[in-house]
Amino acid sequence: MKFKKTRYGRTGRVKTAHGFFKTPSFMTIATRGAVKTLEASEVKKFGADIILSNTYHLYLRPGLEILRKHKGLHNFMKWSGPILTDSGGYQVFSLTKIRKLTEAGAEFKDPLTGKVHILTPEKVIDIQRVIGSDIMMVLDECPPYPATRSYVQKSMELTTRWALRCLEHKKKKRVRNQKLFAIVQGGIYLDLRERHAEELTKYNFDGYAIGGLAVGEPEEKMYASIKAALKFLPKNKPRYLMGVGYPHQIVRAVKFGVDMFDCVLPTRNARHGNLFIWKNFSLKGKFYGTLNIRNEKFACDTCSIDSLCDCPTCKTYSRGYVRHLFKIDEMLGQKLATVHNVRFYQKLMEVLRAKT
Amino acid sequence: MKFKKTRYGRTGRVKTAHGFFKTPSFMTIATRGAVKTLEASEVKKFGADIILSNTYHLYLRPGLEILRKHKGLHNFMKWSGPILTDSGGYQVFSLTKIRKLTEAGAEFKDPLTGKVHILTPEKVIDIQRVIGSDIMMVLDECPPYPATRSYVQKSMELTTRWALRCLEHKKKKRVRNQKLFAIVQGGIYLDLRERHAEELTKYNFDGYAIGGLAVGEPEEKMYASIKAALKFLPKNKPRYLMGVGYPHQIVRAVKFGVDMFDCVLPTRNARHGNLFIWKNFSLKGKFYGTLNIRNEKFACDTCSIDSLCDCPTCKTYSRGYVRHLFKIDEMLGQKLATVHNVRFYQKLMEVLRAKT
Predict the structure, then answer these.
(1) For tag attachment on chain B, is the N or C end more exposed, with fewer CB atoms within 10 Å?
(2) pTM score, two decimals?
């Protein structure tokens, strides 16, 4: 893995068992083995070369038996490129109600069935081995915001111990085709961020993520925390900012030196009719805007959603038609909107990579 | 329009302002300007060369102003082939609660807004002119089942007078690029069916539909009613059996001499996970079956949905994956199922057309 310094941060190509992906990279979200509304073949056409799925969700549904029978997630969902799987740590804390957190791992109830499960560092590695993801994430605890310094510090230390158990288990199981990334925590306490990054980089992880941000903290505190972590992350390994974010946040983080991103924004917003619109490709100032296609004012609008966009939705349909589909609750509307937002984010990354 | 007699009824090509369609033809349903879950370009790939939309639905939403601004439905939904529009008669009687039926037309309340509208024979022609459908249908009254002979007879006579007013209005407005089909009613009273067919064929309609069937009557009564109407329908004009039906019913009706069909079955059933499966292409006996993909037994099934099907869903995905999508309520599942059922029906028509 080599990264080239550019005016806009750095560009690179990361090799995985399922081919390369280019950085800076935005990973489109396929939480439960599908980019909502889209086939994997479509996602690829819009420029995505790596997708993100979730260990927690896939473990609950479809479950490991079905994934094993299908020889892993790639074959199950027919995506032949790289897949990164989040470990499930974040989801256990944000999506489940009853939980017990011990040194061993995180206990939670499946919100649908009520069945109690426990995720341990070793278990999330084993699950990700069945999934067959190209990049596995360590189990981490993601502290809420706000949280006291002492809570964040203790949580961070637990995350370190869990990360090392993940690394150890991966070695023990002789996993070679799957990378493992550690996750830097530390909340908005800059010295904790620095210390955690420094600590984790002592071990030979394949990449480093910055987690626990974009959870409600002020934007400037987020930027400061990213910078604090980056100071100690190695130059020759990928740096992944988890769950961020808006286009302008991605641009800023790329400038800091971040290589990888994921976020539900493009896909989730699309399903509510919220679309990202290019103003220009300068990436400066207000280079993009948003519109809600459900708005009355688009009813008779025969123009495309975004005149600067090259996605099939913008090349084919009018704002009036897409609005009509949303107004009659026709799911094709959500698909056409998702196509546009997915392409918007991939185009953003293309522009970022081209700014050398 | 020429039809060639075959072992399986007849085959033909019907010319419209937006190109030919081949008969026997199954029109895929795009009630409100979209084949639910699919883009028009996809529907075409699966073999559909004509689609059906609905005057009643399009009149209410998006409404005429939006359709006018988009220069008609073809451009609105980006379907370049033939479109047939049902007149809205059937929908006014089946979907709206409060209505007044007079010689003038049918009054109803929009179930969503409560606004009162009236559809008259002249108005449905005018609406269909704005829609720009290649084949317009006359306004008809579709009697419920069961209904008394005297009710059906009176209703049928009203339908005749409305049909003639439609024809007259079309002439007055000098509509040349749009065909107009009459609708034969008469319930399950065979002499009424015969009489109505005979009466309507005195006038120069471009084609004849058989309406008011598949509304709850026994299947054998439906077949007898179709045959009664067909006896009097001209050989050189298309014959369209409205709202029918299951594959074996279509095969039987084609043998009687029917050319055109429409039905919500393939698309609606798909959205509930009910899929049509080929057993063989003989079209004899039980040549097809059905399965519900939500069924537990498909959870680990790595086979395609239908080994005899050439649709993209069957060529790409496993039963286990499509079931997973349904179980997690991911709309991609409904799309993949729709793709299969739409293709199943088009393949059925291809096999029927090839049996010469």
Answers:
(1) C
(2) 0.98
